[in-house]
Write a structure and sequence with these properties.
Layout (H helix, E strand, L loop, with lengths): L5 H9 L19 E3 L1 H7 L9 H11 L5 E3 L15 E2 L2 E2 L9 E2 L4 H5 L14 E9 L6 H9 L4 E6 L22 H4 L2 E5 L10 H5 L4 E4 L4 E2 L14 E2 L7 H10 L1 H15 L5 H17 L1
Parallel strand pairs: 3-5, 6-7, 6-8, 8-9, 9-11
Antiparallel strand pairs: 1-2, 4-10
Helix pairs in contact: 1-10
Length: 295
Amino acid sequence: MYMISISDRVDYYMGNVSRNEKPELSHNGYDVPIELNLELYKENYRIIHPNTAYPMDVVRYLKCAAGRKLIIQCGDSPYTSPARWPVLVKTRDTRYSSNNHGVIANLNSMRHWGDVFKHTDIPWNSKLNEFVWRGADTGGDGHRLRFVTKYGPSHNVGFSGFVQDALESPYLYSTQMIKKVIPVDEMLKYKYLPVIDGNDKSSSLGWVMASNSVPLMPEPRFHSWVCEPWLKAGEHYVVLKDDYSDFEEKLQWCRDNDDKCKEIATNGKEFMLQFTNPLRESYLEEKLIDRVICL
């Protein structure tokens, strides 16, 4: 099994940060930088996404900091301040180029990692030679909306709920786009699983990569704890154009190259196994926070 070294992962998570200038801080921890230690957290815990895993993750990192203050940004928005301060973030958005800052941390961990290795999967040869997709209409760029509009009428594709894009596009809005929620175990009966980003990285990326199915997705725009820069098109996933316009072409390629797709699915699963050792992951987080504090 290929394993990225701890030092390489820490370097990647750190990115191009420096203590040149502090960013503008806020007393609201939603999608903005907030400075905390454990004492400050106890006074402000209600604003750190209380109904998510963010509070648990924030406390874990603050304990690693041993009383020192950390600046943390919770939520889906990228940290794009010109100030390259080591702000802990969930993802870095590569489209922001020179302002693509922030120290990647394992934030909102239960949403992105809680079920990654807990599902009942089946062998590749027992899967349906088809694709399935469910998710919310997030993203702001309309990709999910266009995907469901095109494939929803003829395939097992639909929204689990309306929260954003469909509501903002009345001419496309249709309750027919809503389809019943499908448990992950049911979706794993399909060979081909599209991964479509929402407001940031798709929360399905982890469990799809860790499955016996093959991911179909563009080159990752968002970089996270999954170490996306090490994922290789044609080795760990089947690459799509950023607007998913070649999906049908790539789907046909998958059907014509079954053995290769099985190999890609296996490679992705082996890649994800490197994140399964809790002692290694905890040690890596401690090394990362040491780097942040000593910077």
